[in-house]
Amino acid sequence: MSAETLLDVFVPPEGMVGHSASLVAMTGAEDFLEDAVQRFTGLRARQRAELGNVLVYLMLDGHSSSSRQEVFPPGRIPGLHEFQPRSVDPGSLLHAKVALLAFAPNRTGAPVHLRLAVLTANFTYTSARQQLELVWVVDVPLDGIARPEDRADVAAAGAFVETLLAQRFHRDEQSLAPRDRKLTSRLGVLLAAASSLATNRKPRLIHSLDRPLYDQIRERFRSAIDKPRNFLLCGSGFYEEPSGKARKPAVFGKLEDLGVFTPKPYRVALVEPGEAGAVADWARAGETGGWEVVRPFDALDHNRRLHAKFVYAGYLRDGHASNGWLYLGSGNLSRRGILTHGGMPEGNVETGVVFEVAERFAPEDLERCLFWAQDHAKAVDEGDWAVGQVGDAPDAQPILQTPPILSANIETMPTRRLRLLWREDAAFARVSISWTGRDWFDVQRADDVPLKDDENPTALHVRDESDRKWVVPVVDSAGRVGWQPPRFDTYTDALAALLDFPIRPAEATDDDDDGDDSDDGGAKGPGTGETIEQEKSYALHAAAELVEKVAALQAALPESMLDDWLDHLDRMFRASFPEALIATWRTHRLDIFAHLREPELRSPHLTDKQRARYFEVLDGAARAWGLR
After folding, report:
1. Across residues 107-117, what is the average pLDDT?
2. Residue 199 φ/ψ region, left for φ over 0, alpha for ψ in the -120 to 50 degree band, beta for the rest
3. Which of 509, 628, 523, 530 is nearest to 584 (CA)?
4. Taking Cα atoms as reference points, which of 592, 594, 597, 595 lies closest to residue 614?
5. What residues pair up with 463 in beta bridges, in sequence order?
6. Global confidence as pTM
7. Contact indicator for 499, 553 with CB cutoff of 8 Å
8. How far apart (Å, rounded) are the C-alpha atoms in residues 524 and 304?
9. Are 524 and 535 in contact (CB under 8 A)?
C-alpha cells in the first residue's frame, strides 16, 4: 500500500467537506495525522486553527513508551482532539484499527454521507510507506439508498466506538447535558448519524471487545461457505509467541478449521522470516504439516514488510481463485490477535471485517491484493528464520497518567467564568491550574473560576500534588477550542482575510506567506488638524470600502454557503482590526454594521433563522467595537 492509498481514506467525496471523524488505532504519528486531517478538512494547520473547530477525535492505546508520554496536547494538530485513556489492565492492548468519518456539503452543515474504513494499518507513515497493508472501505450516503449490509456495518462501527469510549477513555463532557457538549459536539452528531442506520442485517464488521475474533470468523466462514474449498491463504504481521518446541503453532490448527475444505487443501502462510514467532522453530525443523510457508510478495518491488492480517478461503484452479471469503483486520494470526478479547486480563481489542469476495482473482490480483505469487514464491532459508518481536503485546510500560481536569469551558452567563470538567474519579485531588497571563493557583472540584473581561485562556495548564503537569483544551463560549481571534497589523490585511471566502483549500494556500507588509492601511497618528481631517477621510473611505465589498460578496453567495458565511463573519469581526481605525470610526460615529443590516446590502437568500443570526453577528461586533 502506498502512502497515497492510505491517505485517500480521508479524502471527502466530490463536492463535500469533512464534518467529523473518529479514529481508533494502536499508534498514530503526528506527521501522518496532520496530513490525514488536512486531507479530511481541505485546510492547512493555520486555517484549522483559525476555525477553532474540533473535527477529528482520536483514540489510541494508552500505554506509555519512549516516544509517547502524553496524549496530543491541544493545538498540536489543529482540529484534532485525543481522548485521555482510562486505567485498564496493563496486559490488555487496544490494537483495533478503524476510521468512521462523516462528510457534509459545507463546513457548518449536517452530515449527508458516512464512510467506514477497517484497516490493518496504524496511522503512521511506517504503515503507509514501509509495510504491506490492507484497507476495506464502505461509503454510505444518508439519503436512504444505501445497501442494508453497508448500513449495518456503519451502525456497528458507531456502537463499537461508543462502547470503546465508555470502557477505555475519559469522555471529557460526559457529565454535561448534550446541548452543552461543545468539545465533542461533532462526535455526538457522527455517532447519532451512525446509529440511525441500524438494521436487522448482521454486520460484516467484527470486534473483540467481549468475544474473540476467531469465533466470529469461523462462524461466518462456515455458515457462508457451504461448498468445499481447496485453498487457504493467510498472512500476518506477527504470529504467536514461541513455546520452545518445534511444533505447529496452535493458531494454524485453528485456521485449518475455519471453513469446509477438500481432503487435501492447498494451504499457504505468508510469513516475514525476521518476525516469525513460533513459526520460526516449526519451519526451521523442515516439516510444516501440509502448509507452504513462504515470504510475502511486494508487487511494487518496494521491499515492504508484511503487516496486513488476513485469511482467504476459496477455490484455486489454474492459478485463479474464486468463490472466496476474506477476513482482514487488526488481529494478527496469533493467540492475542484472534483468540483473546478485551475483557480478558491479557486480551486485545481488535477489529476486522469478514465478507464474500465475489470477483475471480487472477494470479496478478493475488500478487497485488494478497501479496502471494504462486509461480515465483520465495522460500525462506533456514538461517533466515528468527522469532523477532511480538507486535501485538504491550510493552512493559504503564498506562499514561491522566490529568484530574480533562478540559474547561468559558461561560458568559451569569458572569464570565471558567467551568472545569473533572475526571469522574478525581473528586478529592489537590490540583493547581494556570494559563498564559495567570500564575498557578489551587482549585477544588466545586470551583468555578471567575474570569476578567480581558482574560481568554486558550489552553489550561494542570498540576497535581505530585507535580505532574498536563495541558488540556479550553472551549470558548462560541464552541471554539483553543481559539484566538486572528490578528492583523493593517486594515488591508484584515479586509483581505474577511473577503477570503469560501476558505481556500490547502493546496491553494501557503503557510509561509507572511502577507502584505505594507502599512498603507494603517491609520495615521494624532497630530495637526490636517492630520485629523486625513484620518477622517481615510476612515470614511475604509468604512465605505468594507461595506461595499462585504455586501457584494454576500449578495453573490449561493444559499448553500450562507451558514458557513455567517460563521466566517462572526470569526472575522472578532479579529483584531487596527484599533486606531476603529477608534476613528467611534469618534465620527461611523457604524458600518448599521449599513450592513439594510436589505439591499445583505444576502437576498437569508432564511428567518439566518437573518436573526446575521443581525446577532453584526450587533455583537458593533458592541465589541464600541460603535453603539
Report:
1. 96
2. beta
3. 523
4. 597
5. 432, 469
6. 0.92
7. yes
8. 63
9. yes
